[in-house]
Amino acid sequence: MCWLVLPGACHSTQETTEDKPMTSSSETVFWPKKRWCDMISRQFRQLPPETVAILPVAAVEQHGPHLPVYVDACINEMLLDKAMEALPATVPATALPIQAVGKSEEHVAYPGTLTLSAQTLTQVLIEIGESVARSGVKRLVLLNSHGGQPQILDIVARTLRRTHGMFVVCVGWSRFGVPDGMFTDEERRYGIHGGDIETSLMLHLRPDLVEMERADNFEPWPQKLAETAKWLEAEGRVGFGWLTHDIHPSGAAGNAGIATAEKGEAVANQWIKGFLELLVEIAEYPLDRLRPITEDLGR
């Protein structure tokens, strides 16, 4: 079954599915609302088994001299809002409240940064996942917008698979790539924090929060390291533990000075399109592939 409908084509049919129970031969099914918090408790018992819960996981941390600490949370919130607006009426998905504060210990030298420890964030996400499972939803997306915590999300996903039989998908917005030819190879590889891509996104989403007069080419140390090192990289084949000011004292990395709102809009559209396609694949994934743990395995 293919559930993908092009964004824009779904709005005329949304009223026929969302918020209304659908009766099958055996039971009444309640189509999920786009926001988890908008549903009444009893409605969770009637959600279809294909329902996908989306948990946005972000960060509140410095992003250089030109961007607010809100960047990661803003990008996640606003892109998810736009994605849910364009969600095809045939895809049963619902967005959980954002986990705005993540693990940002690499940024603690800069005022305004909020952080949880790796242990705390892991436990928080596991317990939210357990709550989702208790509500009868077995498909969960951990939607990340901060590069400092993918490893935590991977651990959470496997834990929930083992303890609650959940199908948990970890994805960051940046996994959906950027338009061909729009950004330099150096920017795509090394502009990992407050550079051209993130600054362009913020110029598109919240230009009122961007101080472009302070934007510059914050050339990160790993870019210079690559001139002499064959293997060693801060983020790459052979990485090492680093703090943000090891990369650049400004707290940013990348050429923010050439950012534009037009580039940000193009990136946002590509990310939203990719995410909607992914949601269809998650909703269609056969959960019988999640085999139970038994004593017979390995014999």
List its salient traits.
299 residues, alpha/beta, Rossmann fold, two-stranded antiparallel sheet, 8 helices, 8 strands, 10% strand, disordered N terminus
List the helices and strands and how they pair.
Layout (H helix, E strand, L loop, with lengths): L20 E3 L4 E3 L21 E6 L13 H15 L7 E3 L22 H17 L4 E6 L5 H15 L2 E6 L12 H6 L5 H10 L11 E2 L2 H5 L18 H4 L6 E2 L5 H24 L15
Parallel strand pairs: 3-4, 3-5, 5-6
Antiparallel strand pairs: 1-2, 7-8
Most strands sheet: 4 strands, parallel
Low-confidence stretches: 1-18, 21-26
DSSP strand content: 5-15%
Mean pLDDT: 90
Shape: globular
Helix content: 25-40%
Distance between the termini: 36 Å
CATH topology: Rossmann fold
Write the CATH homologous superfamily: Creatininase
Number of distinct beta strands = 8
User: For the largest beta sheet, what order do the strands appear in spatially?
Assistant: 4-3-5-6
Radius of gyration equals: 21 Å
CATH architecture: 3-Layer(aba) Sandwich
Q: How would you spell out the order of helices and strands? A: EEEHEHEHEHHEHHEH
SS summary, helix count:
8
Number of domains: 1
